[in-house]
Specification:
9 strands; alpha/beta; 217 residues; Rossmann fold; four-stranded antiparallel sheet; single chain
Length: 217
């Protein structure tokens, strides 16, 4: 069973400690629901989980191996969907999905790409250059990445923002299926109910700048 964990994580941005001595552990079939007010550090922690930034102290582990050490290998095991649009406007909808599939696997899986198009109601738009998509269609395309490979870990930052009711239900069902199949989810959301999830309130790990030893180990 896959296990994703963080040990004594401390993150500093500028002269502010965003969080300190933060610990978590989630395994297959579990959800870690990040909570806290806007600006508390939820997005920062998710970016750290995805390897986009490094902790000031502490470490992240995937199945017992430190992620900073095996960063390139770790990439194939997770999907990260954040606030920023990752779409390449010059590519078609389907070409974007193929591009993401290539990044996360050793080769494209045509079945999974078709599944991604079908699941997020993008089949009729598959040959359309992404620059012509509406805001809602772009959001669905960003989320369709989740279907392009069978990555066990999903890291999602407010994924339901700007989605209509139908698209929100699609995402909700997809998350439930991922969890049922033994997938792991780390998520910050105000729009999706997460019954039975583990909760982590970032404010529980906020500290003043003088409260921890700032000597980097």
């Amino acid at each position: 069973m896959d296990v994703f964990s963080g040990e004594n994580l401390t993150c500093i941005r500028g002269d502010r400690i965003v969080f300190a001595n933060l610990n978590f552990s989630i395994e297959g079939g579990e959800v870690l629901h990040l909570q806290g007010p806007n600006g508390s550090g939820k997005s920062t922690l998710l970016r750290l989980m995805a390897g986009l930034i490094n902790p000031f102290k502490g470490k992240l582990n995937w199945n017992g191996s430190e992620i900073q050490i095996q960063e390139r290998d770790f990439c194939i095991y997770f999907h990260y969907v954040g606030h920023r649009d990752a779409i390449k406007n010059a590519l078609t909808v389907e070409e974007n999905l193929r591009f993401w599939s290539d990044l996360k696997s050793l080769g494209q899986n045509r079945y999974l790409i078709k599944k991604a198009l079908d699941t997020f109601l993008l089949t009729n738009l598959s040959n359309l250059p992404a620059r012509f998509l509406s805001a809602g269609q772009r959001k669905r395309l960003n989320l369709a990445r989740l279907c392009t490979t069978q990555a066990p870990l999903w890291i999602l930052d407010e994924p339901a923002n700007s989605l209509d009711k139908e698209s929100s239900e699609i995402l909700d069902n997809l998350i439930k299926f991922h969890q049922k199949e033994g997938g792991i989810l780390a998520i910050a959301t105000h729009d999706i109910l997460m019954p039975g999830s583990k909760t982590l309130n970032i404010t529980d790990f906020s500290n003043s700048i003088n409260s921890i030893d700032l000597d980097h180990e």
